[in-house]
Write a structure and sequence with these properties.
Elements lengths: L1 H24 L3 H37 L5 H14 L6 H6 L23 H4 L15 E7 L16 E7 L8 E6 L2 H4 L4 E6 L6 E7 L19 E5 L18 H4 L7 E3 L7 E3 L3 H6 L5 H10 L22 H10 L5 H10 E4 L2 E4 L4 E2 L6 E2 L1
The structure holds a DNA duplex.
DNA sequence: GAGATTTGACCATT
DNA sequence: AATGGTCAAATCTC
């Protein structure tokens, strides 16, 4: 898989080269054509590498969604399949691809629900704390597979950063329900919450209920391509799909805004000496509508256009690692998604304080549930 | 030390 | 009164 990543990086480097030389090559379309074809060839090569892995994943997903397969059988196959793949692919996305918040709904309602959770913190000490909302509309439930390795009681990563604020035994359920809210609730008054509960009859499947939408930027590292969950069982608010990142720069992203066309990426894992690698895929491609590089994306995917959420996540809060295999989806198989936007959000690269970086593989200690790398 | 998690208690809703 | 959602102090992790 490292070789694949290296190939991707090389393609990115070529892209940066094209960008840097665009002024010089403005009157030399032959050169631009040559370079773009080279880029396409590189990414086609990547695609072929990834597609073979992706096929294996599809087999797993079909099995998991089959009613004939018990949860144990699914898990066994799941773990067997992971051995075929690179060992850094986490379960949740290996099976389900993208998080539930990745629907291509275009611009969504991003207005903070000021009457509910956003004011909860400040009102905590008031005389009347609002405990449960009436109506309870903006809610959506999906089912996701347990992580493929390590602590199976941990909920699958979904591309957002959550902070657990409660856990409760639920009547009639073998497993407790965990309550999470957006990590950036305080910073951005983000009202997004989720409840995670394991199913009684399928202990390796989590039922995740999302409530409210993310209004924060930094937690918005969710991919934009489709999110095939095991089962979407409830969607009470048809006009309010699950968390979708806000298309606004973070409050402290002055440097970022000046980098709209910059292509700097810091490659994480090379402590202190971050290597500058090709480009910020989201900023350069995620919103591009007419640029040559965006056109390259369209050529590769046969689709294109469409605005996507911004990437984000910072510090140790971000434990999400999504496989290159999913990046293949994002880049090549998503007809409705901008390829580079999807590529960014597929998790190989993360924006960190305005500078995208690569996540190192995360492995959970099966005995302690802690993270090791 | 900062931030995340755990867990018993509180309280709104049914 | 039962139940579920949230708070917040204690504890844990990095």
């Amino acid at each position: 898989m490292d070789e694949t990543i290296a190939t991707i990086l090389y393609g990115c480097k070529l892209g940066k080269e094209v960008e840097a030389n665009l002024p010089n090559w403005a009157n030399q379309p032959a050169i631009i054509l040559s370079k773009t074809e080279e880029i396409i060839e590189v990414f086609n090569n990547v695609r072929e590498r990834l597609m073979s892995h992706h096929h294996q994943q599809q087999v797993v997903q079909e099995w998991l969604s089959s009613s004939a397969a018990t949860s144990h059988q699914a898990l066994e196959l799941f773990h067997a399949a992971e051995n075929m793949l690179d060992h850094r692919v986490p379960a949740a996305f290996a099976v389900h691809g993208m998080p539930p918040g990745s629907d291509q709904m275009g611009l969504q309602q991003q207005v903070m629900d000021a009457s509910h959770d956003s004011s909860r913190g400040a009102a905590a000490s008031s005389t009347q704390r609002q405990r449960r909302r009436t109506g309870d509309t903006d809610r959506r439930t999906v089912r996701l597979a347990a992580p493929r390795m390590g602590n199976l009681e941990l909920p699958p990563e979904d591309g957002y950063t959550w902070r657990k604020y409660g856990q409760k035994e639920i009547l009639g359920s073998r497993f407790p329900r965990a309550y999470y809210r957006c990590t950036h609730q305080k910073l951005y008054h983000c009202p997004a919450k989720k409840q995670v509960q394991r199913l009684d009859d399928h202990p390796y499947v989590f039922e995740v209920t999302y409530r409210s939408q993310h209004t924060c930027y930094m937690s918005a590292i969710a991919p934009t391509v489709l999110a095939p969950s095991v089962e979407e069982i409830n969607h009470q608010a048809t006009t309010t799909p699950p968390p979708a990142p806000l298309l606004l720069p973070p409050p402290t992203s002055a440097s970022l805004s000046g980098h709209w066309l910059s292509m700097d990426i810091k490659q994480q894992g090379e402590a202190g000496t971050s290597t500058t690698t090709p480009f910020d895929m989201q900023r350069d491609f995620g919103h591009g509508t007419g640029g040559s590089l965006a056109s390259i994306c369209n050529v590769m995917t046969g689709g294109g256009g469409g605005a996507g959420p911004s990437g984000g996540g910072y510090g140790r809060e971000v434990d999400h690692y999504q496989p290159v295999v999913d990046m293949a989806d994002a880049m090549f198989n998503s007809g409705s998604s901008n390829c580079m936007n999807g590529l960014l959000h597929s998790g190989i690269w993360y924006a960190d304080e305005g500078i995208a970086r690569r996540r190192e593989p995360v492995v959970r200690d099966p005995f302690r549930g802690s993270l090791t790398t």
